């Protein structure tokens, strides 16, 4: 039954995305800072996408995180940005923390939009400097995706020495939202500043912060894998079609081997993402380590594929009209928004013993 | 020991548990400690004894019939047993080629009397078969073999030279692909035979590898007689039979570290090495290299796990399994170099008793061949590009030209 629902949902998603996600529309989103495809989001809400993975007790359909991963992969293939991963992660954190059940329900119904505000200036990891004290937040976060249109933010901050995740209603007093020009304007990025802004503690402690970020990393990995698949597909198609020196460029080993390398990166990233998702679904003790490998593997794959997709396309690849730059932008955006690779590598190396023993 | 061959209705989990227990029981006689300091001849004798016990227990040639000394089991059991056996340092290497390809091919192509006579001793480890494929001018391009077979009454006379033949120095028999018609294009003029390595006119000369010890040989043929009854497949079908031979193991297993030290061993070395007094494991370059290796290993583990599920369900595993050796051999080389860097000048030491699985320097020293044998990095990339991604085949100017007219 659940499988049938999922298959139907994915079929619907592919049809909708194929119809709605045009190159013209996607390019228009890139033109203006803080862009968001509100019309597409409206249709996604109608089809119930925000609700599918969110737990039933939070007002969702409770189909589990495994239902969201293939949907994000489809979005990733088309460089479509919808706040599905941020909505799920926020709702799951709210449920775990036992707070703001009403907000979780609004996230499930699509009335609310969440942004994950995890980054800060001068820090590529997740260690927060924003301070929580006396029920309010003070400090500035780095640009966060969907912050330009979000109703709520899940914010990392510290209470004394204890880091945690906090829920902020972005209509509350003391919130400054600066829409910023970005490499990928379709991510609806904005920088958030809090000046004695009321906030609610959701979960406390470094481990909780890492675990919830690990869930986000796992979901984003599927988006990255989708993007990588698309880069490989259009590169291969172009290499078969484009002729120079009397033959298709795909007949030259320089191109063949590059694309074979892209395939390897894709499959390694995909393997890491699949394993992290499975561990999360099974509630295993190796989840965080596998989330690290998913974050790094899928990120490396997409960055490599996006870069070499442009290279394979040659001159046409550097034009605005062509598709590759959407991936070049998106690959880097996704790689940066929930902690950079140097941070995740550190976490992985420090915990690698776990992968040897599990 | 009781007959431990495949038991009906046994779950794969129980099968693995039983295999583990059996392997653990073999450890004192055949494990790393037992093999220390043995000469190659002594090690080979030990290997034959282990092989005999394996065959009795149903763990030798697991997919081949029990009546011949095989295991009568499934492909998934064979893979699972291989994975468990890898965890021990047993002397299995002498039989890998012999039992992996020539014996299954013999069962497919030789008449019943021949296969019933020759397969069982090979499965029990009493005899060894080698595979006479590559030559000085035919490595990646197997169809370019020059070793000639010419008609002589009811048989053939073979002249020429093979190269890179694994364990030919111990081989009793061989399968071979040779040129029987040089007037047709190269793929069409080949024929496949099995032959007795003790035949007059065969000379085996071990090739000294850069790391010293060697399993590879040159094999010279001087007017060697082979009866036509030892032909496998039609005259002119040799290339197809050779490819079939190489495809027998549709899914082969190599350990996570490609025969080198594990990443855990590398992490231990990094924890115990200093860079100007700081622990090397705290250094960003070292951490990056280790993290990327762990990510790659995880992706490959996932691919392997999914391939096993597919095989267990009787499905074909995906093509992504083909990236494993390509990735792991290069990784072993890179990690070996970095390990030696961390050892500083001590990294120059080549421990006489060292082995590739435990010693970073030996691992580095002995790894270049892994990037060449079983498909070079370059050929493997071509294969992915052509067979998986559907890109055009390389330009091959000699493809349709009669072999004796290729310049």
Automatic annotation (TrEMBL), chain B:
Q: Report the coiled-coil segments.
A: none
What GO cellular component is one of the record's annotations? Answer: plasma membrane
Transmembrane stretches in the record are: none
What SUPFAM superfamilies does UniProt report for this protein, alphabetically? Acyl-CoA dehydrogenase C-terminal domain-like, Acyl-CoA dehydrogenase NM domain-like
Instruction: Show where the Acyl-CoA dehydrogenase/oxidase N-terminal domain sits.
Output: 48-126
Domain of life the protein comes from: Bacteria
Q: Which Pfam families match?
A: Acyl-CoA_dh_1 (PF00441), Acyl-CoA_dh_M (PF02770), Acyl-CoA_dh_N (PF02771)
Give start and end of each Acyl-CoA oxidase/dehydrogenase middle domain: 130-224
Molecular function (GO) terms for this protein are: flavin adenine dinucleotide binding; oxidoreductase activity, acting on the CH-CH group of donors
Q: Which UniProt keywords apply?
A: FAD, Flavoprotein, Oxidoreductase
Name the needed cofactors: FAD
Where the record annotates domain Acyl-CoA dehydrogenase/oxidase C-terminal, the positions are 236-388
In the UniProt record, does the keyword DNA repair occur? Answer: no
Family assignment?
Belongs to the acyl-CoA dehydrogenase family.
Q: What is this protein called?
A: Acyl-CoA dehydrogenase
């Amino acid at each position: 039954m659940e499988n049938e629902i999922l298959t139907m949902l994915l079929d619907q998603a592919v049809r909708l995305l194929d119809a709605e996600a045009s190159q013209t529309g996607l390019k228009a989103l890139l033109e203006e800072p803080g862009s968001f495809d509100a019309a597409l989001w409206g249709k996604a809400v109608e089809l119930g996408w925000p609700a599918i993975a969110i737990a039933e007790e939070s007002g969702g359909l409770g189909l589990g995180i495994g239902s969201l991963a293939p949907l994000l992969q489809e979005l990733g293939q088309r460089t479509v940005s919808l706040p599905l991963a941020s909505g799920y992660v926020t709702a799951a954190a709210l449920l775990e923390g036992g707070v703001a059940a009403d907000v979780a329900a609004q996230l499930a119904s699509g009335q609310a939009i969440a942004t994950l505000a995890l980054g800060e200036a001068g820090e590529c990891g997740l260690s927060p400097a924003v301070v929580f004290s006396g029920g309010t937040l003070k400090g500035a976060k780095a640009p966060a995706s969907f912050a330009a249109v979000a109703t709520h933010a899940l914010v990392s901050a510290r209470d004394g020495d204890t880091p945690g995740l906090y829920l902020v209603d972005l209509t509350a007093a003391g919130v400054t939202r600066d829409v910023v020009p970005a490499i990928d304007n379709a991510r609806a990025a904005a920088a958030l500043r809090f000046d004695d802004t009321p906030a609610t503690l959701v979960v406390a402690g470094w481990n909780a912060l890492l675990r919830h970020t690990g869930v986000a990393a796992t979901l984003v990995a599927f988006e990255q894998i989708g993007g990588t698949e698309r880069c490989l597909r259009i590169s291969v198609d172009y290499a078969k079609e484009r002729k120079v020196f009397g033959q298709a460029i795909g007949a030259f080993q320089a191109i063949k081997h590059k694309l074979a390398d892209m395939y390897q990166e894709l499959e390694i990233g995909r393997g890491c993402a699949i394993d992290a998702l499975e561990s999360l679904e099974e509630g295993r003790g190796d989840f965080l380590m596998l989330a690290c490998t998913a974050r790094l593997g899928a990120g490396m794959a997409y960055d490599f594929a996006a870069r070499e997709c442009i290279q394979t396309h040659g001159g046409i690849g550097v034009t605005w009209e062509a598709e590759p730059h959407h991936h070049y932008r998106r690959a880097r955006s996704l790689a940066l928004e929930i902690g950079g690779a140097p941070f995740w590598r550190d976490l992985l190396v420090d915990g690698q013993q776990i992968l040897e023993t599990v | 020991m009781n007959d431990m061959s495949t038991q009906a209705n046994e779950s794969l989990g129980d099968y693995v548990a039983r295999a583990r227990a059996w392997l653990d029981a073999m450890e004192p006689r055949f494990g790393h400690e037992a093999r220390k300091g043995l000469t190659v001849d002594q090690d080979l004798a030990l290997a034959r004894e282990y092989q005999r016990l394996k065959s009795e227990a149903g763990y030798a040639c697991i997919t081949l019939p029990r009546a011949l000394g095989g295991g009568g089991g499934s492909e998934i059991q064979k893979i699972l047993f291989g994975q468990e056996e890898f965890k021990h340092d047993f002397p299995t290497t002498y039989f890998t080629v012999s039992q992996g390809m020539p014996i299954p091919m013999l069962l497919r192509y030789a008449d019943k009397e021949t296969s019933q006579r020759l397969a069982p001793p090979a499965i029990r480890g009493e005899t060894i078969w080698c595979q006479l494929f590559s030559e000085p001018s035919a490595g990646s391009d197997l169809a370019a073999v020059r070793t000639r077979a010419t008609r002589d009454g009811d048989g053939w006379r073979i002249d020429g030279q093979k190269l890179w033949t694994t364990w030919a120095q111990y081989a009793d028999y061989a399968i071979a692909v040779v040129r029987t018609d040089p007037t047709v294009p190269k793929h069409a003029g080949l024929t496949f035979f099995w032959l007795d390595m003790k035949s007059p006119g065969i000379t085996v000369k071990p090739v000294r590898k850069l790391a010293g010890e060697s399993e590879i040989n040159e094999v010279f043929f001087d007017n060697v007689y082979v009866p036509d009854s030892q032909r496998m497949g039609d005259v002119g079908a040799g290339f197809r039979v050779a490819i079939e031979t190489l495809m027998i193991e549709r899914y082969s297993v190599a350990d996570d570290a490609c025969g080198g030290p594990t990443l855990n061993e590398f992490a231990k070395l990094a924890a115990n090495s200093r860079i100007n007094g700081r622990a090397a494991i705290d250094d960003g370059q070292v951490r990056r290299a280790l993290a990327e290796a762990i990510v790659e290993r995880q992706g490959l583990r996932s691919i392997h796990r999914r391939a096993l599920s597919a095989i267990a369900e009787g499905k074909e595993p995906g093509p992504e399994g083909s990236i494993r050796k390509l990735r792991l051999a290069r990784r072993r080389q890179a990690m070996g170099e970095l390990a030696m860097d961390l050892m500083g000048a001590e990294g120059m030491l080549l421990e006489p008793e060292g082995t590739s699985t435990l010693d970073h320097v030996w691992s580095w020293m002995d790894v270049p061949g892994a990037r060449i044998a079983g498909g070079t990095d370059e050929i493997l990339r071509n294969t992915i590009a052509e067979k998986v991604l559907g890109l055009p085949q390389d330009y091959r100017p000699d493809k349709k030209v009669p072999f004796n007219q290729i310049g």
